[in-house]
Structure formats: structure tokens, C-alpha cells
Amino acid sequence: MKTKLVFRLRETCCSEDREPVGLFAHEDRIALVDQIWFAINNAKTWREFRALLPEGEFESLLIWDCNMGEHIYRDGEHYFFFRGETADAFLESIVEADQDMDDYVVNADDSLDPLSLPAVCDGDYPPFLEPEQGRFLPRDFCDTYGAWVSSFNSGSWWEFPLSRFAEMKADLESRGFEVVHQSRRD
Description:
- This protein is α+β, with helices and mostly antiparallel strands.
- The protein folds into two domains: 1-12 and 19-42 and 123-186, no CATH class; 44-111, no CATH class.
- It is 35% helix and 24% strand.
- It has helices at residues 27-42, 46-52, 57-68, 87-96, 133-136, 139-145, 165-174; strands spanning 3-9, 21-26, 70-75, 78-83, 105-107, 147-151, 155-161, 177-181.
- The protein has a five-stranded mixed beta sheet with strand order 6-7-2-1-8. Strands 3-4-5 form a three-stranded antiparallel beta sheet.
- The radius of gyration is 20 Å and the shape is elongated.
- The protein starts with a strand and ends in a 5-residue tail after the last strand.
- 16% of the residues are buried.
């Protein structure tokens, strides 16, 4: 079975003075990111956001975010925002300081502000797919068609010119990949 790759334009890079460029990603990764963006852009409440995410993604976000130092703890229908090492340590510190838990609780039916989601404003969530290309694209392909770019915040990745899509598609298909060009779905 052939590995299916999707070529998609990078939406943040296209300006009038720059040639449109894109990225290659595995079909399942593109679908995951599309569904996450759909949830971010369409959910009105925290409950809707969780329901619109791919199965297990909400919990995955919690685990990832906890590793970065700003935690969200889920307890039934409420979501707790805090900083600290563990949920237990956080709850203990609230009790010891005699603070009001309501300052930290967001009800599942509260309005969702997408900018309050951890890492969205930083561009780190949903997953930034560009750096993944170096793991599956042949190096000589990248050297031939791509441009290596880097950013202080996002690291380095390959960009590929839209104008060479047909040529790149033929090259990758000769190497056993299936390649499609796809627009963003939401």
C-alpha cells in the first residue's frame, strides 16, 4: 500500500511579493489538524470544543499542556486552569491559601475563547506539521525542490513551491508515494 501524502499551501506565507509555497503531510495528520482547527473555529463552549475534537485529543492536549507547565485539570463537567506541578498540589495550594476555586473553574458550558487555549497564540497548537516533513520525505527530493527556512519561534522546515507541484508529484509517485493537492477543509 502506498503512503498517501497531501500537499497544501501554507496559509500564513502567501503574500503578493512571495511565490506561494506549501508543505507535504501524511493524510491522517492533515485530517487531525483540520478537525482541531474546525473545533477551535466553531465551538462556542468548552463542551462543544471537546465534542468537536478528534477522540482523545482533549485529553492529549491536557497531557501535553501539563508538560509545558500550565495545567488544565478535568473533573467531570468542569475544567480547572492552574500552574504547578500536579493537580493535587494545585488544589492543596488553593485550600491552604483560602482562595476561591471559582477563580480557576471554567464550566463546560462557559463560552470558549480560542485565544485562551494553551499554545494556540504561540502557533504550537494544533500541531505545526512543517517540521515533520524531514522525517518522511527523501532528502534528495527536499534538496531538489525545497527551500530550507527557519524561524526563531517555530524552528526549521522545508517549503515547496506551488509552481513545481506537478513535477514534485511525479517525482514522489515514482518513489512509491500517492500525492494529492488539497485545500484546507474548514
